[in-house]
Amino acid sequence: MKSPLKTVLRFVLTLQVACCAAACGGAGNPLLKNAMQVDHLQFTSCPASPLKLGQEAELAAMAYDQEGNPLPDAGLNYRFENPEILKQNSEGKILAKYPGSTHIFATLGGIESAPCVVAVSTPSNARQVVQLTDNAIEDHWGMNNNWSILSGGKILWLSDDGVERKVLFHDLGDSVGQNAELRDTMDDVDFMAMGSSSTAGQVLISWREGLSQTMTSRDGAAAIDLGPQFQEENSISDGVLLFRKGLPYNDIMAFSEKLGLSPLAEKGSLSNPIANGGQALCLEDQGGGNYDLVFFDGGTSKVLTTAPLAPGRYDLREGRVVYIQDDDIFLFDATTGQTQNITQRPQDLPSFVKTDGHSIVFLRNPNGGTDQEVVLYDIVAQEFSVISTTGLPKDGNSLQIDFKQAIWLEGSDLYFHDGSSDPAGTSLIPQGNATLALGYHPYLSDGVVAWIGNDGNDTEVFVMK
């Protein structure tokens, strides 16, 4: 069955003016005449301050002759040194995609300008801890909490007094206490998840009630019941919910805001899907402890490897897949179709790996020892940085990365890395008067960290932003 996921088309927009000599007057064409007179190119609009992620900015350059006179009819192109950080949108503006600094050059024929240097800042985190709940009711992510409950500055959680369960939704930009109640139910709630909607600035939400009912909500609107789907192991991105339809089915279902509910793949042996950018990743059981790692590009599927894989040992973002095989980390790039071994050092024994599509974070035991490090790898620069400050054992399932920032657990301590690729940017997150509730995963998204703490009476929701 055809996948409901959209096919991602990757392209680079360039501003250029083109006109053939025959159609525009041959040698008398002023555009061609101006091009021959160009002496140098210079930017007339270049962002001086760092851009925030998602921010747009004007970009403009001009061609000049030897006497410094502008040649307004000259057609220019722009060359981006690192398109991972910036891209040009359909309106000709530049759009900040990922933290870092890069050069942009104006070009015309064989002439190139001095660079316009543009920086994109990491998501801000003032390390201010806020307690979102303060009551005598258990607040947490639900019975099964392996799925992200943070997206776009919004958070999802469950309020459970032992009788009623309330699914609550909160915009972190609002004042504390402004919670939207999505559902009030007597049934158990689990498999809670939230991710980006197909509409910018909104989110898609999902959870299971009882043992079978799959519920969804768009940005806090009234809940939609998808029926007895026995939802397990889910992932949400770009307005698409992927989930494993539980026993006895083990198929991957896709719910699209635009197309509704339909199977993504029906084989009866699939599990642990990951959705991102119209693409998907899941495991297919081959028996004997081996699994095929299957990549869907929106229309076709491809087996990337067969190995003893498990959640936490593979990930997908921005068309890039990472996975651990034979004590090495491999990177598959869907845009090139190429796979590369990025560690080639099996003595380091990497155990868990995550990616945000531009960087990779993983745990390793250097030289097979007992010490454990958190390592950040820049995909474009191909540079490794150790960002942990201790060699103590880490909880690999807690490891997360987003926009080069990362979090992980060391025992009952929660650590945050600010995206600087420097151990000095790693700090212990203060717990205040509460202790970390280790039965619930912490989460990281868009510079916000969320976790469940126990204040001695019950569990409450905390964020650092």
Topology, element by element:
Blueprint: H1 21-24, H2 30-37, E1 40-45, E2 56-57, E3 60-64, E4 77-80, E5 86-88, E6 94-96, E7 100-108, E8 111-112, E9 116-120, E10 129-131, E11 138-140, E12 150-151, E13 154-160, E14 165-171, E15 179-185, E16 189-196, E17 203-209, E18 213-218, E19 224-228, E20 231-237, E21 240-245, E22 251-256, E23 260-265, E24 270-276, E25 279-287, E26 290-296, E27 301-307, E28 314-317, E29 320-325, E30 328-333, E31 338-341, E32 350-355, E33 359-364, E34 373-378, E35 383-386, E36 395-402, E37 405-410, E38 413-417, E39 426-428, E40 435-436, E41 443-445, E42 448-454, E43 459-464
Antiparallel strand pairs: 1-3, 2-6, 4-7, 5-6, 7-8, 7-9, 10-43, 11-13, 12-13, 13-14, 14-15, 16-17, 17-18, 18-19, 20-21, 21-22, 22-23, 24-25, 25-26, 26-27, 28-29, 29-30, 30-31, 32-33, 33-34, 34-35, 36-37, 37-38, 38-39, 40-42, 41-42, 42-43
